[in-house]
Amino acid sequence: VFNAETAELLSHHQVEIKQEFPREGWVEQDPMEILNSVYECMERTCEKMNELNIDISNIRAIGVTNQRETTVVWDKTTGEPLYNAIVWLDLRTQSTVERLLKRIPGKNKTFSKFKTGLPLSTYFSAVKLRWLLDNVEEIKKAVEDGRAMFGTVDSWLIWVCISGKNGGVHCTDVTNASRTMLFNIHSLEWDPELCKFFEIPMEILPSVRSSSEIYGLMKICPSRESGALTGVPISGCLGDQHAALVGQMCFRDGQAKNTYGTGCFLLCNTGQKSVFSEHGLITTIAYKMGKDKPVFYALEGSVAIAGAVVRWLRDNLGIAKTSQEVEKLAAEVGTSYGCYFVPAFSGLYAPYWEPSARG
């Protein structure tokens, strides 16, 4: 929670979410755990604000940001997820991508580049959704029965937090939609031809809104006694990397930010025109700050593994006991004698887009 006038951080809370690795290259999260962590963070943050004697009734708006591309399908009648969320860096869709490539003349990975800004890759949501429709009987059945809803994590959270099965709002924003491979980044609509290519029924897709408008009001969570933010409008939604671009106030053409989390992402604002790279960068929507406001674009260089390699050094190799120790170890080494380790645990993203590359 921050002060809207000064941008001063007033209070925060965070919870680490468990990643599950059911098989090599598979990465999943439990959508209910994500949801509960959000509730817990909101309640604990509000408790901390009370301790600081800050009146939580001054909270005017809630914003949602999420790891992009992570794919959730849920049942709108029960409100329950139909499968774990498939996380953005999951590689199970490699065979799906290869199968789809065979249907494209010349196996051209960039066949939809001028519509979506993206190459055909395991990274984006459409192939994850295709895998779910091909491999999870329950999802197939829910789609046939008209019960299934697809979304990235922002859609799942907004739907549940606004009313869930009692009339939740099924929406996403332009930044998250632009990471699905199903969205035309110029017309700002789901693309019927691409949906047909991936064989994805358009009725399960969320409506697409701007990144800044009122989607609905926060409802009390049925499983908890209190709902500190009940009635506060949810009025902001941006994929995490776009939120970082906005948070660093890169509003001018040519301004860029780089963030280091699980992965590493360089986004450069290209203003109101979409720029297409000849060098393996992707074109994405940066933000759209209101229904009637113009859309801004960005070029992005995506690296799948950055902070995750630190976690791997700590948890898998046992080279360091804490993440902080890695910096100290790196600083002690004078030279690597020309030896480098490329952590291609989820293949390589920009500029190669090669899912079969390994560390």
UniProtKB/TrEMBL annotation:
E.C. code: 2.7.1.30
Single GO biological process annotation from the record: glycerol catabolic process
Carbohydrate kinase FGGY N-terminal domain span: 1-247
Entry annotated with the keyword Methyltransferase: no
MF annotations from Gene Ontology: ATP binding; glycerol kinase activity
PROSITE patterns: FGGY_KINASES_1 (PS00933)
GO cellular component: mitochondrion
Catalytic activity: glycerol + ATP = sn-glycerol 3-phosphate + ADP + H(+)
Ranges for domain Carbohydrate kinase FGGY C-terminal: 257-359
Transmembrane annotation, as ranges: none
Tagged with keyword Kinase: yes
UniProt-listed Pfam families: FGGY_C (PF02782), FGGY_N (PF00370)
Pathway membership: Polyol metabolism; glycerol degradation via glycerol kinase pathway; sn-glycerol 3-phosphate from glycerol: step 1/1
Keywords per UniProt: ATP-binding, Glycerol metabolism, Kinase, Nucleotide-binding, Transferase
Residue runs in coiled coils: none
Family: Belongs to the FGGY kinase family.
Name used for this protein in its record: Probable glycerol kinase
Organism of provenance: Aegithalos caudatus (Long-tailed tit)
Organism ancestry: Eukaryota, Metazoa, Chordata, Craniata, Vertebrata
